[in-house]
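Entry 12.
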Amino acid sequence: MAPIKLGYSFGDGKITHKHVDFYQERSGYIGAITLEPLYMDAGLREIPTQLGIDSDDKIEGLQRLVDHIHEDGAAVIAHLNHPGRMANPKIPGNYHISSSDQPCENGGAIPRRMEKQDFFKVIGLFTQAAIRAEKTGFDIIELQFGHGYLLAQFLSPKVNDRTDEYGGSLENRMRFPLEVLEVVKSAVSLPVIVRISGDDMIPDGIHLSEMIEFSKRLKEKGVEAIHVSAGTVCSTPPWFFQHMFVPKGKTWEFAKTIQEKVDIPTIFVGRINSAEDIEMLKKNFGAHYFAIGRALVADPLFVGKYLREVEGQIRPCLACAEGCLGGVRAGKGLHCVVNPMAGESYPELIKAPVKKKYAVVGGGLAGMEAALTLNERGHEVVMYEKNELGGQFNLAYLPPKKENLKKIIDFYKNQLEVENISVIYEEATLKKLLAANYDGVVLATGAVPAIPPIKGLKKYFWTEFLHEEHLPENKNVLIIGGGLIGIEVASKLVEQNNKVVIVEMMEEIARGMEMIEKTLTLKKLKEKGVEIYTSTKVVEIDGKSVKLEGAEETTLEDVDHIVLTTGMKSYNPLFDKIRDKIKTYVIGDAKEVGKAYDAIRDGYNLGLTL
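Predicted 3D structure (tokens):
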């Protein structure tokens, strides 16, 4: 398992029961677990709730966790990383040093250029952390030399502008990372692997040719394996996080080249999230070692299922970063859109003491998750869906570069079929539900667009333009509402040379959009010349003329199409009719409009309790 930040500590850097639960759930069927990056100094944290290995008082908890993982047969890897200039500036007491005094391109503190005493201190931190790792019982140490962290800040010609023996040529830029490696290897007897970025994915950063030479030196210094990723958190976070917006497989190409040129055990990583990926990597890339990250968040039994030692379909990682990255950034700890159990301490799923018959009305994400969980607990389930399984999430994968999201709908459809859950493709009426004599009815009927009272509003579109067959070309399109849906419709429209204007009542644009997707999409809209009005509302529509009211009054002329994406409201027409006649439960958007993350959790929670 690759290192992924969990954010489950209480701010003291120590192990909690959540860490134990999370890693134990994933430690079967796998060769080794890499814990989340372990901070070596409380002033070098990336998140407030990160695990630490900065003092001996951390050893007891880490030892307990390592012992639990060992019981399941997996080795444990200590991932040691110095963030340098990327220590979180919002955490009180953090300090920032680097090879130069250049701050991160995407924001952050201005670091202090390292001097002689700083070199000694950094080496001391790595040494003491490695010694603690060995005392704790870790099996392997992984040193982070990539992703734009401190030692990569020395390797990078973009960041490192030094003129002393640590800057300039590759030989000089690799000097300090190699010094750190030598000291760590001399301090402990554990095998050491090194993680690198095969390429920073920016013109003036680290490139593969230099990383091949660096890898040769790492091999000479006794490194056991090289773990090849890509990107830098500062400049190219989508590559670092292997987000769905970047093409899959580039890291595999880097790893293949290094494996061939250096002849050293090479670990492949980066969106390896299906059995087909592993088979293809073995066949076409000559891969022998794999680091699985977020796919193990989505499905803890991913490896067991791949090895066919565990029955069942792999629950797919969507590479969306919504729950795993978004949850950590929000201070809630790592969660997962598709796996409701990630980061939660649910009671064990057990069979219901009495088998009952439930109707689930609505086949969206909440309804399908509820149906499968109820079925797993031994209940009989009948699902009603008047249109198509997947509900409004069938729109989620239509915007550019989001086709990966369809995987979760396909997963649910397959599971419903495997479990022989009856799906009736017709509208559920009160008469039908009462006639079937159900013990309870679960209403998962979703949400519908909320239409504001705009003078003159007659003809408008909602999400129709997400479909290729309805997509106009070379038209003037006004989008009223600049939230998630409005921005995604705009992203689709600009690809067909439409001139787009977005009007949003709030100050913030793209509310509810995952951060990486938001940054890249808004950048695209800016490059395409999309006009965005915030703190502005549409007050009147007169033919092709639209009057806006904001900081000043504006009138848009020659508007060909209007798209209305001003939010959603719960749709629940059956509740008042049925609640006095049969036990009724409301979940998902039908209860409260939310995101896919909320819908799946709501469905699971209900299924767990009925």
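Annotation: Residues 59 and 564 are 56 Å apart (CA to CA). The longest strand covers residues 75-80.
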